[in-house]
C-alpha cells in the first residue's frame, strides 16, 4: 500500500516448509519482532509474466495472507534473479486439517466447514470486487490457524486481473478444482471459475475426498450431460461435440445421508455448468451469519463480522443479512469482543475438537490486530 519504503529486515531460524514448480517457501523468524514469517522465493522467469507481487500489494483483507515485505536476490547462475515475498506465517492448511480427519476415518465437523467456507467466500467476494481472479482455489491454498480457526487465502502466483475481451490461458487451476469452461478450453472466462473451485472445496470437506478426482472432465458428468445451451455458455466451439448421454446423479445420493440439506443445496448452486448461473459469493452463502446457527462463536465473532468499508460497499443491499444484530456495532469499527473457539490444533490432540477456551480478539477496522488465547499471544 502506498510508495515503497526501503527497510532493513533481518531474520533467522530459516527452514524449508514447502516447494514446487513456483519455487521454495521458507519459514523464518524476524529478529526485531521475533514474529514468524513465511518467505516465498520465486525465480523471475522472463518467459512468463509474474503478477503476484503487483496483485498482493493492492490487497488488504483479514482473510488474505498479508505481504509484509519483498526483496530481490541473486541466484547461483548468471542473470538469475529471485523475487522473495515475506508473508504472514500461518501454520496449517485446510488440506492438512481435512487429511487429519480422513486418517481418523471421520470428516470435519460441519461447524468448521461453515467457518472455513464463510471466510473463503469473504476473501473471494473481496478479490472479485477488485477485479482479481485467483485461478487456483484448492484446500492447499487455504491457510488456517488451528488456534483461532481464522482462514487466509494464499498463493496468488496464478492470479490475474481479468479484463473483458482480453484472452486468458485456459490451462490454469489445479486438476480437481478446474471449472468445466476451462476443461473446454475457454479463454474468455470470468471470476466464476473461482466459484466453481470453491464448490469443489465445499464438496470435498463434506465428502472427505475430492468430488471430481479423475484425469479429465468426464468425472464432472456426475452432474449429467450438459445441454447444448450450457455448452454454448462454457465454450461455443464445442456445441457440436458428441458427449456420452448421462443422466444427472441426484445430489442427495452424492453425499452421505447425514449431510445437511442446505450444504447440499449450496454445492448444487456453486457447481453449475453455466458460469453465469453460479451465485455471486458473499459470506451469507454459508448461513453462518445467523446468530441462531451453531457456529463456534458463542456471542460475537470478529473474525467473521469485522467488515471493512470496502466490503460493505460491494453489495450494500445484503449488509443487513451479512451482519447479525449482535455484531453490527463491531463492523468497520474498533471493538473488543469475546469469542469462544476450540483452540487445540488437530495435530496436537487426537480428541478433536477439544474443550472451548476464551479468545479475546482486538478487532480494528479492516484487520484483526491481535488475539490472546489463554496467556499466549497468537
From TrEMBL:
Any one GO molecular function term: tau-protein kinase activity
Record's GO cellular component terms: axon; cytosol; nucleus
Record's protein name: [tau protein] kinase
Pfam families, A to Z: Pkinase
Annotated GO biological process: cell differentiation; insulin receptor signaling pathway; negative regulation of canonical Wnt signaling pathway; negative regulation of TOR signaling; positive regulation of proteasomal ubiquitin-dependent protein catabolic process; regulation of microtubule cytoskeleton organization; regulation of neuron projection development
The family this protein is said to belong to: Belongs to the protein kinase superfamily. CMGC Ser/Thr protein kinase family. GSK-3 subfamily.
Enzymatic class: transferase
InterPro entries registered for this protein in UniProt: GSK-3, Kinase-like_dom_sf, Prot_kinase_dom, Protein_kinase_ATP_BS, Ser/Thr_kinase_AS, STKc_GSK3
Occurrences of domain Protein kinase (ranges): 11-293
Residues reported to bind ATP: 41
Catalytic activity: L-threonyl-[tau protein] + ATP = O-phospho-L-threonyl-[tau protein] + ADP + H(+); L-seryl-[tau protein] + ATP = O-phospho-L-seryl-[tau protein] + ADP + H(+)
EC numbers for this chain: 2.7.11.26
UniProt xrefs under SMART domains: S_TKc
Keywords: ATP-binding, Kinase, Nucleotide-binding, Serine/threonine-protein kinase, Transferase
Amino acid at each position: 500500500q502506498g510508495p515503497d519504503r526501503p527497510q532493513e529486515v533481518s531474520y533467522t531460524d530459516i527452514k524449508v516448509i514447502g516447494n514446487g514448480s513456483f519455487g521454495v517457501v521458507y519459514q523464518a523468524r524476524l529478529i526485531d519482532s521475533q514474529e514468524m514469517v513465511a518467505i516465498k522465493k520465486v525465480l523471475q522467469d522472463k518467459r512468463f509474466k509474474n503478477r503476484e507481487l503487483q496483485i498482493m500489494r493492492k490487497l488488504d483483507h483479514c482473510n488474505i495472507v498479508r505481504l509484509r515485505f519483498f526483496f530481490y536476490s541473486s541466484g547461483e547462475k548468471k542473470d538469475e534473479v529471485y523475487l522473495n515475498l515475506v508473508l504472514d506465517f500461518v501454520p496449517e492448511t485446510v488440506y492438512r486439517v481435512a487429511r487429519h480427519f480422513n486418517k481418523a476415518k471421520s470428516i470435519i465437523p460441519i461447524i468448521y466447514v461453515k467457518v472455513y467456507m464463510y471466510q473463503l467466500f469473504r476473501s473471494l467476494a473481496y478479490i472479485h470486487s477488485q477485479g482479481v481472479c485467483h485461478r487456483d482455489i484448492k484446500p492447499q491454498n487455504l491457510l488456517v490457524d488451528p488456534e483461532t480457526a481464522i482462514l487466509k487465502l494464499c498463493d496468488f502466483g496464478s492470479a490475474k486481473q481479468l479484463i473483458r475481451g482480453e484472452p486468458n490461458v485456459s490451462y490454469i487451476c489445479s486438476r480437481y478444482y478446474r471449472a468445466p469452461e476451462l476443461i473446454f478450453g475457454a479463454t474468455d472466462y470470468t471470476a466464476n471459475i473461482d466459484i466453481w473451485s470453491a464448490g469443489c472445496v465445499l464438496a470435498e470437506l463434506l465428502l472427505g475426498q475430492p468430488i471430481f478426482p479423475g484425469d479429465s472432465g468426464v468425472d464432472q458428468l456426475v452432474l449429467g450431460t450438459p445441454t447444448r445451451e450450457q455448452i454454448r455458455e462454457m465454450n461455443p466451439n464445442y456445441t457440436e461435440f458428441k458427449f456420452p448421454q448421462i443422466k444427472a446423479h441426484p445430489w442427495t445420493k452424492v453425499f452421505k445421508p447425514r449431510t445437511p440439506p442446505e450444504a447440499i443445496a449450496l454445492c448444487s448452486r456453486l457447481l453449475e455448468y453455466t458460469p453465469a448461473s453460479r451465485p455471486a459469493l458473499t459470506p451469507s452463502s454459508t448461513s453462518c451469519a445467523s446468530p441462531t446457527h451453531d457456529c463456534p462463536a458463542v456471542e460475537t465473532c470478529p473474525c467473521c463480522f469485522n467488515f471493512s468499508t470496502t466490503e460493505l460497499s460491494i453489495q450494500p443491499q445484503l449488509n443487513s443479512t451479512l451482519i447479525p444484530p449482535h455484531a453490527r456495532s463491531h463492523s468497520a469499527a474498533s471493538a473488543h469482543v469475546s469469542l469462544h473457539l476450540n483452540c487445540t490444533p488437530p495435530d496436537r490432540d487426537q480428541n478433536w475438537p477439544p474443550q472451548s477456551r476464551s479468545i479475546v480478539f482486538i478487532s480494528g477496522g479492516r484487520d484483526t490486530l491481535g488475539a490472546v488465547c489463554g496467556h499466549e499471544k497468537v
